[in-house]
From TrEMBL:
It comes from the Eukaryota. Keywords: Disulfide bond. Coiled coil: none annotated. Residues 43-142 form the CUB domain. This is CUB domain-containing protein. Gene3D superfamilies: Spermadhesin, CUB domain (2.60.120.290). InterPro entries: CUB_dom (IPR000859), Sperma_CUB_dom_sf (IPR035914). It comes from Elysia chlorotica. CDD domains: CUB.
Amino acid sequence: MGMKPRLRYMDYHCDQTLDVFSEILLALKPTHVLPEVRQDIRQNHVTCRVRLRAPTGHRIFLHFLWLRISADQQHHDRVKIYDPSPVKTLLTPKSGLYGKLDRSMDIQDTDGSKITDYRSSQNEIIVEYLGNPTAEHAGFKILLTVFKSKWKKKLERE
């Protein structure tokens, strides 16, 4: 039996780089520390960016296990995913991801589905969260998996 991926809380690593060698789970906050309801938007407001880095010659696959981010336009809670190499590129829609997804994506999901899986073009990916999480809108849990990059093999052959 394989080992379970290690759980890392994103807000403990804001503006840091996390090295990923096989797979990790990235969640916003431990749910036991979240308030039941929103306080003043300035309290407990989180702006957090984490760069995830795989070994050279590998890429990162990002899969949302669940997402619970307020869709209320007054609160502007969002998560955005960037591919930083070679130029920082936003992979998610401009408005970011929000809403509720309590299941994994399925092969039967249509192109209009709001949550998809993401892959880095090289060995790094950035996850950014802006918002005010609560027990009801706790954020997200993402599975990040490192895989061998095909482009490295192609370059080695040339």
